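#onboarding

Welcome to the new folks! Below is a worked example of what a typical request in this channel looks like: someone posts a single protein sequence, and someone else replies with the predicted structure as tokens. Don't worry about understanding the tokens yet, we'll cover that in week two.

Example request:
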Amino acid sequence: MDLKELYQDIILEHGKSPRNLGKCKGYNHDAKGYNPLCGDKVHVYLKIDNKKKVENLTFEGEGCAISLASASIMTELVNGKSFNEAKDIMNSFLNMIKNKSEIQTVHLSDDQKTKLMSLSGVKQFPMRVKCATLSWHTLVSALEGKKNEVNIETID
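Example response:
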């Protein structure tokens, strides 16, 4: 199996069976995101403990396989991380999708980086970049305590 097939398998698996789907109990941060071009919607629920650690991260949403897979992968990789680690992972992902070809963070294992890199192919399709980044921008909004709905069209 080549790398492209592996990446496709990861996206399809997460798209069909998203992880951490639903509203987590005791969440204390949340945010909604919307992509008006294709109709993708996401609602991120986040429970951060008093030491600024992501105790639980879940989502509800509807959309394409890329949007759901990205949100699913995000929840798996950010759960259990400190606030600063979560921000670093998010920035590394967004930078990879927009600019670079590799994930530049020390907060993920090689297997986790491979999982995240499965979304790198969307760079070839600018409209799909918005699908892949919607949940991540929504997580940033939740972490920062913003109350406005994230509209992916207004984000570079």
